[in-house]
Design brief:
small ribosomal subunit rRNA binding, 4 strands, single chain, structural constituent of ribosome, Alpha-Beta Plaits, 4 helices, Ribosomal_bS6_sf, alpha+beta, 4-stranded antiparallel sheet, elongated
Length: 134
């Protein structure tokens, strides 16, 4: 399992119920395939760095957005499930952009077997060298 952070930008006009249903769909996809959803965070409506273009115009004819709602989902899943989550997000009209990042946490360092890459083993080796020199 890999720890992922999915940051998505939704239309600022997206209805709360639609976004909640989308988060439930994503969470069910992850959990039903053996993953773990750690948290979902709503960062609120913010100004976009530049205007984003939606795939389709909405009912009022708006296709360009200068504000967007940012939402993060943190989860553990296999790479195949991550691609399925991306597919769900790409098909949703409310989502303007989405990005998946491979998250890092301390457990990745602890579980690293290679001594040269594991900071905890390096720390112990350095302490042994110091105590052996005295």
């Amino acid at each position: 399992m890999v720890f992922y952070e999915c940051l998505m930008t939704a239309k600022n006009t997206a209805h709360y119920n639609n976004l909640t249903a989308l988060m439930k769909d994503i969470s069910l996809k992850i959990v039903n395939n053996g993953g773990i959803v750690r948290s979902i965070q709503n960062h609120g409506v913010r100004q976009l760095p530049h205007r984003f273009r939606a795939k389709y115009a909405d009912r009022e004819g708006n296709r360009y957005y200068e504000k967007g709602r940012f939402v993060s989902v943190f989860y553990d899943a296999s790479p195949g499930i991550m691609r399925q989550v991306e597919g769900i997000l790409n098909l949703d009209e409310q989502i303007l952009r989405n990005t998946h990042l491979k998250g890092r946490n301390k457990f990745m360092d602890v579980n690293n077997v290679r001594e040269a890459k594991n900071p905890y083993i390096q720390e112990i080796l350095q302490e042994d060298e110091r105590s052996g020199a005295n």
